Amino acid sequence: MQKLIIQGGVPLSGEIRISGAKNAALPILCASLLTGETLTIENVPYLNDITTMLSLLGQMGVSVAPNGKETGMTAAHLSHLVAPYEMVKTMRAAILVLGPMLARAGAARVSLPGGCAIGLRPVDQHIKGLQAMGAEIDIEHGYIHAKAKRLTGARIVMDIVTVTGTENLMMAATLADGTTVLENAAREPEVLDLANCLIAMGAKIHGVGSDVITIEGVEKLHGATYRVMADRIETGTFLVAAAASGGEIHLTETRSDTLDAVLDKLMEAGAAIESGEDWIHLKMNNPLKSVNLRTAPYPAFPTDMQAQFMVLNCVAAGTAMITETIFENRFMHVQELRRMNADIKVEGNTAVVCGVAGLDGANVMATDLRASASLVLAGLIAKGETVIDRIYHLDRGYERIEDKLSLLGARIRRAD
Ligand SMILES: CC(=O)N[C@H]1[C@@H](OP(=O)(O)OP(=O)(O)OC[C@H]2O[C@@H](n3ccc(=O)[nH]c3=O)[C@H](O)[C@@H]2O)O[C@H](CO)[C@@H](O)[C@@H]1O
Ligand SMILES: C=C(OP(=O)(O)O)C(=O)O
Question: How confident is the model at residue 400 (pLDDT cuts 50, 70, 90)?
């Protein structure tokens, strides 16, 4: 199993390019199921989750033509309407084939995603929404069996704000008979990116970016070329790495307007930030100050940045309260950070982080994607060597993280 080995203590400095967003590219790849024509997707990041999704779609009959950062997807005939457990267990976003497959082919069999490290993550809202649109759904032997001659538009009030739930139902509704209204919809930028791709394919969608999305079903969608948005979580992770290490960093091919809550917290922590249309520059002029935060759906502070900010708080002056409201088990990095001399206590869904003078390098184990990123950041600022085991989690969501960090002066390498 591969490991990352980091010699900490170097302030990060330099310029890197941000990749396309994993959480936008995954649903956009699934949107290719909605048409028999070619959907060309640009700025697809090179990540394990993307490889898994391409192989799942390939098994279903989608022809995949990767060409550098551009991928042509043609779902002329869907031959195999199944998403097997072996794939869904490694990547929960595989549930995103359910809505489009059902809408286009009238049937789908998708493994129920298991509980994963960060929480139970049920898919009841996806199922409830599709049922409201007339799908017959049975759950047997761990699989969702869904069928519908043609889905019909419906008014669906989601009990909870769910990102992939909103995306699945929005995709299904594009080919339904009549109008669908999704209430309490997710407002994440990745939902907007998917909607813009669907609109480029001929879908009629209004209200995205608000919590009520209206979709008028159409008979057919057509091919299009669409560029995936920049990864706001990769952007945020590098910004925190630079801030926590006392460095200066320039990020290109990214956007600041999807990161307001994160940038506000970085400035509160002492960072000077400037940004343009497609770049962000961060310089750490002041000593780090601890920042309280509470995760919540967009536009509030993203849960996918919680672990990284915990590391920043570990070495900041003061005490921070970090409250996680999205996932019930997203503090697994805490016990690993404590092995590195961090002072963190967890009370329910709140972590109390007292800043210490410095972290110590140690052997630690990655448990999920963003927890892994937080351990990399901790290793970068710690004294001595940190060895991070089980980094396959990291490769799900970060493109060549060690290469990008090396460009910024980090002493980091991958080893078997
Ligand atoms: C591929 C992708 O885009 N992943 C992101 C997506 O995950 P994902 O879309 O899976 O997360 P959700 O927004 O669905 O989850 C939010 C909360 O709703 C609960 N829930 C969700 C669906 C449902 O049917 N029933 C239910 O109870 C979940 O357990 C969780 O507690 O949004 C999360 C929240 O911003 C991010 O952390 C993930 O990085
Ligand atoms: C939790 C994440 O991803 P996923 O929903 O794919 O597990 C994430 O990107 O932080």
Answer: confident
Ligand 1 centroid to 160 CA: how many Å?
Answer: 9
Q: Is 124 exposed, middle or buried (0-12, 13-18, 19+ CB in 10 A)?
A: exposed
3-state SS class at 191: helix
For the annotated binding site, the residues are 22-23, 92, 121-125, 304, 326
- Ligand 2 atom closest to Cα of 91? 6
CA distance 163 to 210: 13
Q: Give the ligand whose atoms come closest to the C-alpha of residue 123.
A: 1
In tens, the pLDDT along 218-272 reads 999 999 999 999 999 999 999 999 999 999 999 999 999 999 999 999 999 999 9
Measured from the Cα of 128, ligand 1's closest atom is 24
Q: Given the CA of residue 118, which atom of ligand 2 is nearest to it? A: 1
To the query of whether residue 116 is one of the catalytic residues in this protein, the response is: yes
Percent of the chain with pLDDT over 90: 96
Ligand 2: does its nearest atom lie under 6 Å from the Cβ of 92? yes
pLDDT tens string 41-96: 999 999 999 999 999 999 999 999 988 878 999 999 999 999 999 999 989 999 99
Contact criterion met (CB below 8 Å) for 270 and 289: yes
Closest CA to 49 of 369, 305, 331, 330: 369
Residue of 4, 94, 2 whose CA lies nearest to 406: 4
Rounded to the nearest angstrom, the distance between the alpha carbon of 43 and the centre of ligand 1 is: 24
176, 161, 142, 52 alpha-carbon torsion, rounded to 10°: 80
CA distance 303 to 322: 11
Q: Could you say which of 30, 116, 197, 314 is catalytic?
A: 116
pTM beyond 0.90: the answer is: yes
ipTM attached to this prediction: 0.99
Is 246 touching ligand 2 by the criterion CB < 6 Å? no
Give the whole-angstrom CA distance, residue 363 versus residue 276: 39
Residue of 220, 244, 305, 226 lying closest to 34 (CA atoms)? 220
Q: Tell me, using a 6 A CB cutoff, whether residue 231 lines ligand 2.
A: no
